[in-house]
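Working notes for the structural subgroup meeting. M.R. asked for a predicted model of this chain before we commit to crystallization trials. I am recording the input and output together here so anyone reviewing the notebook later can reproduce the run.

Input as submitted:
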Amino acid sequence: MAEFTIIGGNVSGIAAALYLTEKGHTVTLYEHRIWNKPCGSAISLEFKEYLYNEWGVELNEAHQGKYMIIGLPNGNHVEIESPFVATTRLELQEKLLQLLKEKDISVNITGKRLTATEVMEVATPQTIVATGYSKLTHQLLQRTWDPKDVAHVVRFDGMVKNAEYPDNHYIIIDNKVTGYGWLFVGDNNHLNIGIGGEERSLPHNFSWKAYFDRFLSILREKYHIKIEDDLPIQGWKLPLPVNKWKYHVSYVHNGIEFIGVGDALGMAHPILGAGIEPGWLSGWCLAEATDEKGHIDTKKYQKLLRKNIKITSGRRLDIFLATMMRSRLPYKNLFAYYALKLFTRKMIATMRKHHWYKVHIYN
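Returned structure, recorded in token form:
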């Protein structure tokens, strides 16, 4: 049995806390606040059911929609039955943190971000870092991300007056930011609208607000969705490496071994940017790499991550499509459209077969 400190109380940190506690270890989790993290917040139907059936977590605000529309700025698109539900990160974090409290796991909502010095004061010999893309992650894990592996995301999440839209989710691929925009629909005019793209692809004078407004105009003019302008947006950075294994998973500082989970390791899907379920999976992998005495074998941890992530989002097809979509080839939008038209159903079917949260059968 051992004691662990976890810095960061969103999905990956919470998953690590749950699985470590299930193995009999003691966990103290530090989170600076409960908040609506700026991201798409889509999860698979299977993961929603898993949270309810296995952990009793019911997401009341999750909304499936009828179809997922994948298209281009010119209006060309493909349509598939919606494979996911759109929730809010606020509700997801609130429900998961409540689950920790029900399990008698110590949760410390600090009200402010811990500094590296403050972390050292509460750290255990092996401390888990679940702080995503942040200065603290860089300090604790000594990770310097390659610019091509970093995406910038901005989004609006909330109620929209006088919006008119069908009951569908939308993903619009756009070469201008080497990324895509999305619109996820919720109940009662609740919308999650965002855009994300590669940091290195943006010109010096690029304006995310201007591009966000441009994306709204595409939704209106090409997809006939009525949404007002001047929606307030929030920004976020996210590591999305195609090759996740060129970065180390841990770093020793002053005798403390800091070990990353979730976005701190760039676990999100290299094409979709989906990070909730890979983050959850990384928490399981970390617990599985922990022996009875409470020592995390980081070599075993990385092996488990590599094996399981490869099954869900690291297949050759995923890597090929991600690499091509990030290239600077002419007509890349058109290529991306036809590639997704050909492979989307196969990619979604594979992800639904090998669930991010159940692939721990591959041990």
